[in-house]
């Protein structure tokens, strides 16, 4: 097993050679934590680590850091998602220390959706750093034990550092170079955008392997089950950077309404089964948006259960 | 150049309607190019305001005039008398001109008739487009001559984000993705390999973030 450098369970699973399974929970639009705890409990035996989204789609919610603390107190391994939209370098570094102080050992560095999509389109945005620079920042804090200012951090944060990749964003020709950039910045794991166009994803992975990037970073393939043909169409038309092929829409349409959700789950399972064989895919990130109860079924049917025991 | 757009008429009217007299001043440089704040527009706005005053049964004397550039002392000479004799001024200059006027005439109320919108160019007749945010530390040399600070909705120095679709930005199908433009341009220059150079964290202290900026020529 490759040597681990943080207390992260995700790091241990990946470095011991297992295909990892992560999932995500979106915090509530309320101060009631029971919601996130229930979600975590639903999936905890079927995943290694759980991402907590950071005001996703720019809609104001209970903060990612607090939600991670709630999951951590339940004995789970949370992945703190951090977008650079809402906080400057002072606040970001401060939150990283705060998270580490609770034993939160994973961070996923993201740009964040533009606030135009959210509940406060009139808000100012920050973008002091970009997502790559946040990756560099966390690595610097951890490895050099310093703030960006150069000042010393007595007890550096023990963080396993991740970033996102969207093989379906344009222009396609820089999507592998872009991953190389994130790796050069210090990303240790990658969680991808939801994969529906498998051919395109495999083509991207080919480019990734050509450059040997799969040996430098753990790539977790993003999986989101579709609940209905309506959702499939919505993703295809309205979500920038999402690639849903027409065949999938046709397949969902060909199934009677009551059974479309099951079909969506089956598609997710088939996707995982196919990508398990794709060299360089180190695991799966199952994002069942507001449908967390389906994660165990997907994981079991994909042959990814039971999860490895890690001390 | 500086681009501005006239405020909604009703908003302008609410600013000035309680005066007995005021003078409308155009600024005949940047904001004249975008047909929003030149001397001609000042004349038109003044007549609209006169009509509105009549409609509301108010007796207001509204004069209009122009100043070539409302941001430098020398251009004020000809207008001096008129400004001194005005109860208030409605300026069609950008925010710079409005403030310059206000600081020159501390006892005269000066109101803005424009919203100063951005620093931009004129890519085609009648179209104005933001190109610079005066961040104080130009990166155009490494981004193929396309400014991500002003033209990327997330001002990413290492873009594009995952939302770039068919050359358009995730915020709107009508907005070009600046990073698509950067990449196209690097490719045209035969420098696509430069894409992989990681741009360092920016020093925003040279931007608005560092407080108001000044610059003094030592020889003057
Ligand atoms: S789509 Fe392009 S312009 Fe829009 S935020 Fe992303 S990188 Fe910036």
Protein architecture, described:
- The complex is a heterodimer of chains A (311) and B (220).
- Chain A is 38% helix and 14% strand.
- Chain A is built from 11 helices and 8 strands.
- In chain A, α10 crosses α11.
- The longest helix of chain A is centred in the C-terminal third of the chain and has 17 residues.
- Chain A is globular, with a radius of gyration of 19 Å.
- Chain B folds into 2 domains: 117 residues, Response regulator (Rossmann fold, 3-Layer(aba) Sandwich); 74 residues, no CATH class.
- By secondary structure, chain B is α/β, with parallel strands linked by helices.
- Chains A and B meet through α5 and α6 of A and loops of B.
- The structure holds iron/sulfur cluster (SF4).
- Chain B: InterPro entries: DUF5981.
- Chain B: This is Methylene-tetrahydrofolate reductase C terminal.
- Chain A: InterPro entries: FAD-linked_oxidoreductase-like, Mehydrof_redctse-like.
- Chain A: Keywords: FAD, Flavoprotein, Oxidoreductase.
Summarize the structure.
The complex is a heterodimer of chains A (311) and B (220). With 311 residues, chain A is of the alpha/beta class. Chain A contains 11 helices and 8 strands.
The first-to-last residue Cα distance of chain A is 14 Å
pLDDT averaged over residues of chain A: 97
Q: Are there runs of chain B of 5+ residues with pLDDT below 50, and where?
A: none
Share of residues in strands of chain A: 5-15%
Trace the largest sheet of chain B across and list its strands: 3-2-4-5
Tell me the Rg of chain B in angstroms.
Answer: 22 Å
Name the overall outline of chain A.
Answer: globular
- Distance from first to last alpha carbon of chain B: 25 Å
